[in-house]
């Protein structure tokens, strides 16, 4: 190994960021590093001179987001199986990158980012001159944020645009925010590594991306989303998302909304497509799935994760989980990507 892992300024914890870096000329080590922090299905093959490999990565994880500044130093071909659990954005800082995903070919460079939704394989031609920012956002986090920002129902996975502009408008602002956050998380003793401030940064990145990416949702429904929701439904949704672990009852939520239980349930079915408690259960299932997808199988217990999200009947939980994700919780934990 030429180089090595760089210790980060913070350790993983509730609300705390974690930073790790690697400098190496060993392709196997670079490949394992990227699989561990991003996706287990990731494949990297050199197409240039392997002797010129100078892999460099600084990666910070903060709740549902993972930010990385990455370069290889030699031409490589990268392939990734369907992301499933995450949306992903690549922002070239130098050079260019050719991307193929779901039939779309995007030539990304410092003027244009490439966006991936969690379905379909990815193929990348990554020249040695390309250094980029890699931004991974957990699927449930971005979908909840776009849902809240639009105040409309969104489908999953969301049909996002394949790229966005980095020169003008929100794309320029968002990419600058990501770059600044990664710089701050990579340095010791900054405000960004303090849990309370880190949470605010995290929310800004997710919300900023929700407002930056292209999507088919607008002021008028496009057939993919429901009508605008009444204020009573919005109040209940805000309460659920603010405290998803709380033991909400239908009466609690109706009190927050300021209407009777039956009125709230009817409004939810009309504007959300399900009852308030069904929505809460689906949200918690998504959170369990996200947590299991990023956890170490040797250090994580499925039952403990389920209990922490309010699932006290493990048999019903396992059935609901399999119905939603097509796999058991233990399979998700074992096959995390």
Automatic annotation (TrEMBL):
- The yes or no answer to whether the keyword Nucleotide-binding is present is no
Segment forming the signal sequence: none
Domain spans labelled HTH araC/xylS-type: 234-335
Q: Which GO terms describe its molecular function?
A: DNA-binding transcription factor activity; sequence-specific DNA binding
Which protein are we looking at? AraC-type DNA-binding protein
Taxonomic placement: Bacteria, Bacillati, Actinomycetota, Actinomycetes, Micromonosporales
The record ties this protein, via SUPFAM superfamilies, to: Homeodomain-like
Q: Where is the composition biased (Low complexity)?
A: 7-18
The organism of origin for this protein: Actinoplanes derwentensis
Q: Which InterPro entries match?
A: AraC-bd_2, AraC_XylS_family_regulators, Homeodomain-like_sf, HTH_AraC, HTH_AraC-typ_CS
């Amino acid at each position: 190994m030429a180089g090595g892992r760089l210790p980060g300024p913070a350790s993983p914890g509730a609300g705390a960021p974690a930073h790790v870096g690697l400098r190496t000329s060993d392709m196997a080590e670079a490949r394992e590093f990227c699989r561990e922090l991003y996706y287990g299905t990731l494949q990297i093959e050199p197409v240039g001179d392997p002797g010129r490999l100078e892999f460099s990565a600084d990666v910070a994880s903060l709740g549902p987001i993972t930010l990385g500044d990455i370069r290889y130093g030699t031409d490589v071909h990268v392939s990734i199986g369907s992301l499933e659990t995450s949306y992903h954005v690549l922002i070239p800082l130098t050079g260019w990158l050719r991307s193929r995903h779901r039939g779309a070919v995007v030539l990304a460079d410092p003027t244009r980012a490439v966006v991936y939704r969690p379905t379909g394989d990815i193929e990348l031609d990554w020249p040695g001159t390309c250094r980029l920012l890699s931004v991974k956002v957990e699927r449930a986090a971005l979908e909840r944020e776009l849902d809240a920002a639009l105040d409309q129902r969104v489908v999953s996975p969301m049909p996002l645009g394949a790229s966005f502009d980095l020169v003008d408008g929100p794309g320029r602002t968002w990419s600058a925010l990501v770059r600044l956050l990664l710089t701050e998380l990579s340095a010791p003793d900054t405000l960004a590594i303090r849990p309370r401030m880190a949470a605010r940064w995290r929310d800004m990145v997710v919300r900023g991306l929700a407002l930056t990416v292209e999507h088919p949702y607008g002021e008028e429904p496009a057939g993919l989303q429901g009508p605008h929701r009444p204020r009573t439904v919005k109040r209940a949704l805000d309460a659920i998302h603010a405290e998803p672990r709380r033991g909400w009852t239908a009466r609690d939520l109706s009190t927050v909304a300021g209407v009777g239980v039956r009125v709230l349930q009817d409004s939810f079915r009309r504007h959300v497509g399900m009852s308030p408690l069904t929505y809460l259960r689906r949200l918690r299932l998504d959170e369990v799935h996200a947590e299991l997808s990023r956890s170490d199988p040797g250090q994580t217990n499925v039952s403990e994760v389920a209990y922490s999200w309010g699932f006290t009947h493990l048999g019903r939980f396992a059935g609901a989980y399999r119905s939603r994700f097509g796999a058991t919780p233990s399979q998700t934990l074992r096959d995390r990507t």
